[in-house]
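Appendix B. Extra example for self-study. Work through it before the problem class; the solution is given directly after the inputs so you can check yourself.
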Amino acid sequence: MKIDILTIFPEMFFGPLSASILGRAAQAGVLRFEVINIRDYAEGKHKVTDDYPYGGGTGMVMKPEPVYAALDSIIARAPERPWIVLMTPQGDVFNQRVARDLSKKGHLVIVCGHYEGVDERIRFAVDQEISIGDYVLTGGEIPALAVIDAVSRLVPGVLGDEASALTDSFADGILEGPQYTRPREFRGMEVPEVLLSGDHERVRLWRRREALKRTLTRRPDLLDKANLSEEDRGLLREVKRELGGGGEPADHQGP
Ligand code: ADE
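Solution. Structure tokens for the complete assembly:
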């Protein structure tokens, strides 16, 4: 997958895109990132990318010409038309479904908005506007990185273990249950016996039940939309009975 990023702060991407799983996938050629400085497409001696808002008011507005020029250049070089996304708090709220849809695009272009906003005409150059949540950041760079990270790990070949993208939180619409590693006992807190049993079927059922319990106690709203099997529904009934009518007990026990 090719991901082009249009930004006025290219340096914000260098560390995150070269470290860890994304860095490894880029090295291996599974992902190709190109960070494009919008300023390189701005005109005049000062290469301005923002200007005062018509009608007055505080803050600067991102100018349309450099963004259109950068997009024109990308599109002219691309074998097929890429999918163009604008990061903005006014966009569709990002979630795992949106990440999955984007992971199927061969070529993504992400435009990072800045200043107080972008000239309205920039919206006509993009296919989709995305917000990462109902809060305002100083620019679209950190939101773009969140989207790139969530999308990249769904691209085949990016995660070492393909299965982990299928079993993690939200893959089937519910939260992941508790996980443990060594030591077996830590500060009085013990690893549940079932995980030491070696009985794969018991472990599988326990994990599923705990995932459902965690979702019920922390994010019951997710259960309405989740893709639950008959077995899941049975486990959920058990969990509700155990919790006594769906109360709100803590689902993690300390010492
Ligand atoms: N730019 C500023 N805040 C944002 C948000 N919440 N999502 C996407 N882009 C943004």
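Self-check: Residues 87-89, 113, 131-133, 135-137, 139-140, 143 surround adenine (CB under 6 Å). If your reasoning did not lead you there, revisit section 3.
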